[in-house]
TrEMBL record:
Coiled coil ranges: none
Domain of life according to the entry: Bacteria
Protein name: Gfo/Idh/MocA family oxidoreductase
Residues covered by the Gfo/Idh/MocA-like oxidoreductase N-terminal domain: 2-118
One Pfam match: GFO_IDH_MocA_C3
Domain GFO/IDH/MocA-like oxidoreductase span(s) in chain numbering: 126-233
InterPro entries registered for this protein in UniProt: Gfo/Idh/MocA-like_OxRdtase_N (IPR000683), Gfo/Idh/MocA_Oxidoreductases (IPR051450), GFO_IDH_MocA-like_dom (IPR055170), NAD(P)-bd_dom_sf (IPR036291)
Length: 346
């Protein structure tokens, strides 16, 4: 199978690396920057060819992997979909709901696979954490808290929410097996007048809440999700070398006050117990994801993150834009509401 990777930047270079390890896949690299093309050729001699534009390779390939800046995802993907090519698009699928809907429709019209790069949904630790939640070991989920922080990379065409939060929104949605119904946002521009570089999100799910902190302006790289349950709590730390998941047998229970001298304290009791770190067999999530893309094309079976999944997350991101503009809680427009022509409002 011949796959063209469009965009040889941060993510594109990683896709080229993992695809080049697959003996049944041929790879071409498309990037307008000649220096990047030369770098790809030097590092991966097996690359079939490089090109400056997608039009140079579109007739030769079976599939296209879009790893360009988010603002160009729609144009590149639609060109490939219209040509009958299978497409994998890095997150976010698009930068507007209308564009994402058009991409999903184009894939359906041309009978090709459209997949979104929600890489963490292919992470073994995230998948194991979902199994732990489903088992009931944590009890009812009280809330989910996540942080995705680092120094950069500042983006030209999207703010920090559209750049980083798709990961955390998809993780929370994946863990809870439901989508947010509303969002509220605080965001701020610290460097320059162009894009918000730090933000706090609250996602209202039907069953609970999730809180997301994202930043391009932080001294440490943080990739952490905490699930607080009634019985136990779990922390997934993607930066940990050997303990990606920790389960804490710890919590707080309501209690009656027996001692009148303690009436000023909250009527709760605290539980403390063991900390367990289950073994998580590691497989590189990007490799698992890209392998599934190739296999889905061959089998005709939709991937775990089809275009519709990407569209759902874009709807949530669009809701954060409304919340930032209005300063209020903004509903997430569902697929059924969109089909009826209902507009999101503050």
């Amino acid at each position: 199978m011949h796959v063209a990777v469009v965009g040889y930047g941060y993510w594109g270079s990683k896709h080229v690396r993992v695809l080049s390890t697959m003996p049944d896949v041929a790879v071409s690299v498309v990037d307008a920057d000649k220096r990047r093309r030369e770098e790809a050729e030097a590092l991966y001699p097996s690359i079939r060819r490089t090109a400056g534009t997608i039009d140079e390779v579109l007739d030769e390939v079976d599939a296209v992997l879009v790893a360009t800046p988010p603002g160009s995802h729609y144009d590149v993907a639609m060109r490939a979909l219209s040509a009958g090519k299978h497409v994998l698009v890095e997150k976010p699928l698009a930068t507007s709901v209308d564009d994402a809907e058009a991409m999903v429709a184009a894939a359906d019209d041309n009978d090709v696979q459209l997949m979104v790069g929600h890489t963490f949904e292919y992470n073994p630790a995230v998948r194991q954490l979902r199994d732990i939640i489903r088992s009931g070991e944590l009890g009812r989920v009280l809330y989910v808290d996540s942080a995705r922080l680092s120094l950069g990379l500042y983006q030209r065409d999207v703010n920090v929410i559209w750049d980083l939060a798709p990961h955390d929104i998809s993780i929370a949605s994946y863990l809870l097996d439901e989508l947010p119904v509303a969002t509220s946002v605080w965001a701020h521009r610290n460097i320059g007048p162009w894009r918000e570089d730090v933000a706090y999100l609250r996602l209202d799910f039907p069953s609970t809440h999730a809180f997301v902190h994202v930043s391009w302006l932080n001294p440490q790289k943080v990739r952490r999700t905490t699930v607080v349950g009634e019985r136990r709590m779990a922390v997934y730390d993607d930066m940990s070398d050997n303990e990606r998941i920790r389960i804490y047998d710890i919590g707080v229970d309501p209690a009656d006050i027996d001692n009148p001298h303690m009436a000023h304290e909250m009527p709760v009791t605290y539980r403390t117990g063991n900390i367990i770190s289950p073994f998580v067999p590691f497989r590189e999530p990007l490799l698992v994801q890209d392998r599934e893309f190739v296999d889905s094309i061959r089998s005709g079976v939709r991937s775990a993150t089809p275009g519709e999944r990407g569209l759902d997350i874009v709807r949530v991101l669009a809701s954060t834009d409304v919340s930032m503009e209005t300063g209020k809680v903004a509903p997430v427009l569902s697929r059924s509401a969109a089909a009826r022509g209902v507009k999101a409002s503050s």
